[in-house]
User: Fold this.
Amino acid sequence: MSLNFPRISIVTPSLNQARYLERTILSVLEQGYPNLEYIIIDGGSTDGSIDIIKRYADKLAYWVSEIDNGQAHAINKGLRLATGDWVAWQNSDDVYYPGAFLSLARKISRAPGIDLIIGNMNLVGNNDEFIRDIKYVRPSYSAILAEGMVLTNQAAFWRRRLHNEVGYLDESLDCGFDFEWFLRCLEGRRASHVNETWGAFRLHEDTKTNNRQAVFNEEYRRVLKG
Assistant:
């Protein structure tokens, strides 16, 4: 049986990430996936990022550089433009690994009733050096409620129609918007896990994870209180 290639839309929000941005862009474009829509939403970078984006403009469905209201707002702008059957966002300092989109398409063809699909991911350093792997299991609402982030956007994809059902990212959250979104996404819906490494989260000195842990903790508490 031939494999269908559902349209996949990827959104990359970016602000002054010229050091890593090209690596992110290439990790999407070099997938070689035949039904890809790639959108970059830049928040008005002044570090040379725009020159990098322009280098690949002919391969992008859309890009813009303008002041926005933060990362969640930038992602939402891209997701509202997306036309794919499946969508995701990849941050401008993180990457997908080769074959991730093809692996996703295979899983979609075998699991028509699934709303969200995740893979595993790696932690990497400034120059893509491997730090450690993170392996997940099938995510569920009860698991994320009890344990926190049992999945990450670096290796997660979901049906675009979910945004019609549960809305978009909460733009009032600066660090915990992904946790809040996946919490809503998983409630009452079916998810699946593919035991392959699909992406990587880059640990470097400017990440929110390194510098804003107190904000993460406060926003997670706020989300769980409802």
